[in-house]
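pasting for ref
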Amino acid sequence: MANDSKTWRCGKYELSFDRPRIMGVLNVTPDSFSDGGEHFDPDAAIEYGLAMLDAGADIIDVGGESTRPGFTPVNPDEEARRVLPVVRALAKEGAIVSIDTRHVAVAKAAVRCGASIVNDVTGFTDPKMVEFVKTSTCGVIVMHAGEVAAPARTHATVQLDTSAAAFVAEKAREAAAEAAREAEKPARRRRGKLLGEPKPEAKLPGGVVQPSLPFGEPEPTSEPAAEQETPAAEQTAAAATAAPEAAPAPAEPTPEPSDHLAAMMRRSARREEAYVPTSQLRRFTLPDSAPIMRRVMGFLSDQARTLIHAGVSRDRICIDPGPGFGKSANEDIVIQRETAKMASLGYPLMCAVSRKRFVGAVSGVTEAAERDAATFGVCLGAIQAGANIVRVHDVAGFAQFLNGYWAVAKPQSRRAFVAVGSNLGHRCDNIRAARDMIAEIPLTCVSNCSRIYESEPAYETRQDAFANAVIEIKTELAPLVLLDELMKIEAELGRDRSKKAKANGPRTIDLDLLWMDGETHGGKKLRLPHPLIGERDFVLVPLEDLMHDPARFFRYNGVEVKEPEDRVGHIVGELGRM
């Protein structure tokens, strides 16, 4: 959706959705279903997280416990040991970090280390997790994990005995029970009504009966504490009908894990493994969507309201239908086709289908790591229907895919500011040449320019004074794509960015992307807003030609702006107009 009005507040960050946001998956686990063990080492995980930021990820989702079907639960202490160094390092680089956990202790520690989002796969059904997030400012992701098919009713096994002795014994028991009930009636009658009579079913207006709804798993029947004595007639019948060979006792079922999520995912895996095609005729290719969506949307709505009533502001909540968590391939397809209905709830909506089993089912790809192209197709359908955040493993591939699609399908220009500086050669001519080349960048135009100012050198003071200006542009390019274009202009104008060149030394041209409308980004390659904008006099003064009170503007956007006397690279004169 080209101009989605939703915003998502995540700690000190605020994400807008005029463009879909990419969440990169970072599993610090040995057993995740498609990339288990690849980033288990903290240093490898940090390096990979930074690479995803540089490839186009807006958020990094860090998880220390695999929740694949049949997973083994991880102790919270072990989970924290895996994820905290990674969260801390990525947050330090300006990344928006999401902690993927269902343990409140891990969530608390991760937020203290810099995480801005808590992604709870159990949908904040733990009151302790709700209590924690209501006292913080982090964003929250409510996910649905559970079966969406109606639970099957269980029936006690019935063994038929057609012998005459058994028939006589049964009639004797019935007669004795009836006599006992008749004897107790006077004592049990109260005010014209028998105690112990079944409670009539509730009636809705119009006489419609509201039956009890079988939500949840059926409770197992318990055996009586003590065996009753067997009547003599029944013993005779049992002896008369005893088979020559005793029937083998049924095998004991494998006990479910005590962990509810693990038990649900294990049941899901068993259903997948036990499925065999049948010749049974069906009228429709997919199950009815109404009962499935009632369960999914009902849960998401209820949990979101629970958080709001606890004190979590609505603009901090994101929802996720939880594809693959207790759901069959058919059910996942039904849910994805109803993305527009889930988006209509008004919360930011996540599409987290990357490499899931149902993606393999519809694409015919068996290996999870090879399902990225099919993942992109499913994600595109979700984006067109209103999904705001896409959680993927292949960030670089999806960023390319999204940039290509968005440029053609969603015309949308955004304002940005580029700082231009030079202290080698003809300084003003270098700046004007850079301006003309910026105007030639695809899907980009120059809308305004500041005057050219002379400033003291900053950081590296033993060099000539600089000429500086700021150019205001409008662009339809993604920030990282625009940055690459600016780097090409630097190279064409003779900027030396090799390792032998001083980072802040003399240069023919220097182009810095300072700020872009609606964009927050972290990483080694690009930081938005520019992390040093608030201390540079040679940037803030030219900006005064383009906007009213830039210091106030950037402070409002979360940038610390220093007082003029505390800044670096002070302006000392004016060199003319652009």
